[in-house]
Amino acid sequence: MRTEGLDAHRTIRAGHGWQPIDRDAAVSALGAEGEALDALRALARDLRDTGKGRTVTYSRKAFFPVTNLCRDRCAYCTFRRDEGEDGAWTMRPDEIRAWAERAHDLDCIEALMCLGDQPEAAFPGYRAFLASRGHASTIGYVGEACRIALAAGLLPHSNPGVMSPDDLALLRPLNVSLGMMLESTSAVLRRKGHAHYYAPDKDPDLRLQVLRDAGEQRIPFTTGILIGIGESPADRVDSLLAIADLHQRYGHVQEVIVQNFRAKPEIPMATCEEPDTVDLARTVAVARLILGPEVNVQVPPNLSPEGLAYLLDSGINDLGGISPLTPDYVNPEAPWPHLAALARDCARAGYRLAERLPIYPEYVDRPGFLDDGLRERVIAAQAAIDARSTEGAAA
Ligand code: SF4
């Protein structure tokens, strides 16, 4: 592994500030082993410490699979269904309301709206359903779902796939933040035989444009990369550099998820190799060294349960949404860990687990980011978290 690019980061320890790791050093670091790997992780951990300390956050959420119909067919997906297929499901407004009220009773704050991409383009029965609710597109229905969640006392964070500038503008006043995984900037993945061949919405240029448009509209935005889907080390680095570049320009990327591919028997990629914890940790460390001390870097704990301490010491500071109510519909075989057990595991590793809102605190008061119509709700939700944490500390 080349170390010249990493040497610059040793200045972190000397208190001389931070410079992003250069591209070649980052690509090389993705192959680090032994002492070089230890050094890489230590640098990322120290950089995280300068910006975030030893607190690791999570959001208490309920997952709303608004519809699992999707026009795309990513080769690793178990979530999507065709219209009429077993398990096809579009949540009706009454269901959304009942789930939202139950989630609020269980002290959830975040309503994560998660769904397939542009199903109205593929399924006539679904189009008729949208029309019966007065919507021309899925985004309109997501807006309705958000209104229901808000009325139940939750704060929506929607992740509806590719969004146009009008879609973003429609959802902005109804969501404290929005999300869409970049996944990868690799154009190769769109070629025949690759993970995104049947997924027009995974076109990297389209997704980078969404990130750009979200930045123009000053929307606190969650994005990230998916690793182990056929991308090269250089693709991973280029994807992270693209996110860093847009964040530098607009300051809107509130968190970057590093998500690992999981092989499942029913998918076309069933026999593909999964990234192991070390590969995930290297990528997390490189993400931290590219993105800097302040950006929130997340790994979902249910997708890498055995490696929590290792990943914490590789530079992450967030564990994403954790639900006391609903399973992870995208990875239903991977249950979320119980919060108390997670807090214990974090403490054993030397970290404090703390609840956060689905909008990160640094965006609440940053001018122009949080919609004024949502401000009071956000302040009330933060007060509820503070009260819970005080009660927890006193117990
Ligand atoms: S990963 Fe998302 S876009 Fe791809 S098929 Fe599944 S639901 Fe559709």
Task: Give the beta-strand count.
Answer: 9
- Give the CATH architecture of one domain: Alpha-Beta Barrel
What is the CATH topology classification name of one domain? TIM Barrel
Percent helix: 40-55%
Mean pLDDT: 92
Shape: globular
The CATH homologous superfamily of one domain corresponds to Aldolase class I
Q: Helix count?
A: 14
Structural class: alpha/beta
Distance between the termini: 49 Å
> Main sheet?
9 strands, parallel
Provide the CATH top-level class of one domain: Alpha Beta
Give the low-pLDDT segments: 11-15
N to C succession of SSEs: HHHEHEHHEHEHEHEHEHEHEHH
Cofactors and ligands: iron/sulfur cluster
Radius of gyration of CA atoms, rounded to a whole number? 20 Å
List its salient traits:
TIM Barrel; 395 residues; globular; 14 helices; single chain; binds iron/sulfur cluster
Describe what this molecule looks like in 3D.
The structure is a single chain. By secondary structure, the protein is α/β, with parallel strands linked by helices. It has a domain at 4-58 and 177-394: Aldolase class I (TIM Barrel), CATH 3.20.20.70. It is 41% helix and 14% strand. The chain is built from 14 helices and 9 strands. Strands 1, 2, 3, 4, 5, 6, 7, 8 and 9 form a 9-stranded parallel sheet that branches. Helix 8 runs parallel beside helix 9 (233-250) and helix 9 (233-250) runs parallel beside helix 10 (277-291). The termini are far apart. Iron/sulfur cluster is lined by residues 70, 72-74, 77, 79-80, 116-117, 161, 199, 201.
